[in-house]
Amino acid sequence: MKRALRLAAKGAGRTSPNPMVGAVVVRGETTVAEGFHEFVGGPHAEVNALRQAGDKARGATLYVTLEPCNHQGRTPPCTRAVLDSGVATVVIGMEDPNPGVRGGGASFLRSHGLRVHAGILEKECRALNQPFIKHVTTGLPYVTLKAAVTLDGAIASSSGDSKWISNERSRKFAHHLRCISDGVLIGIGTALADDPLLSARIKRRPACRQPVRIVLDSRLRLPLESALVRTAAEFPLMVVCGRDAPPTREKALVDAGAEVMRLSSGKGGIHLPELLRALGSKGLCSLLVEGGATVLGAFLDNGLADDFHFFYAPKVLGDPAGTPMVRGRGRERMADAVPVFDVRVRRFGEDVMLSGRLTEHLY
């Protein structure tokens, strides 16, 4: 199952809105075949592994990280392929979390005489597919916060300069985070100050999938000459505004290739719960929030973030007027601070990345 998990992870950024799944076929102590779900719309992990195994699958054991599907989707049900292969035993990491189909694949295989064992490395299997599980059970995308920050907690100087806080290795990993996310989001303040492209620029074969670039822009102030708008025909761009934003600005952005989404807004900006529902309904399972400080604060204040990656660079700005990493409502007591869980540390050269969950339990 550990090998199947490693295989499944190879599909990161290519399978959404489907899960990442790995499969291994074993006869006795010998692995005879393996596979993973390589891209959305392509054969599932079980099918890839069983095709590779051929006749060697008869009487063998199939290890798979997620319960084989028993319904027709983009591809035929995997349970039929498992049954036809002659496999005798199926070992499943976790049940399919989809409430409408959970347990159906395992029950079908048992009813046809196969031995089925479930719940093997279940926690690890669930951790691998948190965006898929959250989306299929709640309809909402899994939200990750990302920021690069100095040791004294600034993401920009008082002049607005923020390039570059983190080093090249950290920035490369940040592009990897974009590559495996369905959407990447910033506020209009960051768009105006940095004029970012927000694409995933990473050398990868097959080519990295580009996330939907999302800008929270209540009054549609995003310039038509910005890098985001100029590349709207090449990389998907969504501008989210308030319901009373100028129609002429909307037309200009749409003509340039952007999608404009009108949602409720107020003093705090766009209504974020409504935004997440809308993005989830469009099939976005994961959302990378890159800031700025007000946007990060809003997600934290509303309890809408699931995890984070914060890159700390070995720099001290010492600027009392600099921009802090988070501008939220503030908390007077330390006991009221937002708790984090399962904190992990990773080095990128001299930079240190802290990662962790903002939800106590896995989905």
TrEMBL record:
Residues in the signal sequence: none
PROSITE patterns named in the record: CYT_DCMP_DEAMINASES_1, CYT_DCMP_DEAMINASES_2
Binding site for Zn(2+): H44, C69, C78
CDD domains linked: Riboflavin_deaminase-reductase
Residues reported in the UniProt entry to bind NADP(+): A148, W164, T190, D194, S218, G292, A293, T294, V295, L296, G297, A298
CMP/dCMP-type deaminase domain residues: 1-117
InterPro entries from the UniProt entry: APOBEC/CMP_deaminase_Zn-bd, CMP_dCMP_dom, Cytidine_deaminase-like, DHFR-like_dom_sf, Eubact_RibD, RibD_C, RibDG_C, Riboflavin_Biosynth_HTPR
Keyword RNA-binding among record annotations: no
Active site: E46
Transmembrane region(s): none
Needed co-factor(s): Zn(2+)
Pathway(s) annotated for this protein in UniProt: Cofactor biosynthesis; riboflavin biosynthesis; 5-amino-6-(D-ribitylamino)uracil from GTP: step 2/4; Cofactor biosynthesis; riboflavin biosynthesis; 5-amino-6-(D-ribitylamino)uracil from GTP: step 3/4
Any single GO BP term: riboflavin biosynthetic process
Domain of life where this protein originates: Bacteria
GO molecular function terms listed in the Swiss-Prot or TrEMBL record: 5-amino-6-(5-phosphoribosylamino)uracil reductase activity; diaminohydroxyphosphoribosylaminopyrimidine deaminase activity; NADP binding; zinc ion binding
List of residues binding substrate: S162, R178, L198, R201, E290
Keywords assigned by UniProt, alphabetized: Hydrolase, Metal-binding, Multifunctional enzyme, NADP, Oxidoreductase, Riboflavin biosynthesis, Zinc
Keyword Ion transport set for record: no
UniProt cofactor note: Binds 1 zinc ion.
Role description: Converts 2,5-diamino-6-(ribosylamino)-4(3h)-pyrimidinone 5'-phosphate into 5-amino-6-(ribosylamino)-2,4(1h,3h)-pyrimidinedione 5'-phosphate.
Family of the protein in this entry: In the N-terminal section; belongs to the cytidine and deoxycytidylate deaminase family. In the C-terminal section; belongs to the HTP reductase family.
Designated name of the protein: Riboflavin biosynthesis protein RibD
